[in-house]
Design brief:
The protein is mainly alpha-helical. The chain has 14 helices and two strands.
Length: 225
Amino acid sequence: MTGHVLEEARKRRGVSQLEAAKLLGLSQPMLSHVETGRRNVSADVARKAVEFFGADPIVLPLSVNERHCEQELATELASLGYPGFAHLKGLRRNPAEVLFDALDRSDLDVRVTEGLPWLVLHYANLDWTWLVKESKLRNRQNRLGFVVSLAQGMAGSLGFQDVPQHLKLVQRDLEEARLANADTLCQGSLPVSRRKHVRSLRSRLAAHWNLDTRMTEADLAHYAA
């Protein structure tokens, strides 16, 4: 987050600099320095700005080392607006970090996995440079490519006009790095017999990304809007 982004979020909420400084745990002169770029926005201040002023969570700091449990991932999806976990409450987290954390797992609750295309669809302006780079480093580009492809298909059917073209550029980058090795969509503990069965029923899209998964756009329709 930059100081300018922080200032804009504060002003949109109609909060004075003095009031904002108290909420953020800063002195007014320090907040002035932050907003004018003379001081950096700390991770703590960025999180508070998202919480108190409604700043876009895509400006939150990113880390590959932040690993949360499945329940935390569910509450983070809820905090970002995912209707599948609307009954849960949690702190907001950068959607790119949530995606990376979720996809970089051997196993993950299917209910959480189902929320990932929704996350891509509704936060299509997230930091793709960071996410694609880290996914490639961990050989997770096929998983990310599949999720992005699902989101792109959902975008077209739901009338998200600007999203499909934006995601197409990301998809092209992932296509060039597509892996030939078979994988699952975070279901690594599936028995061999079960995995063979899933493979026999997977969609063309899943086969394209070499993933043994039965997830399709149809499975996500009730969460898409």
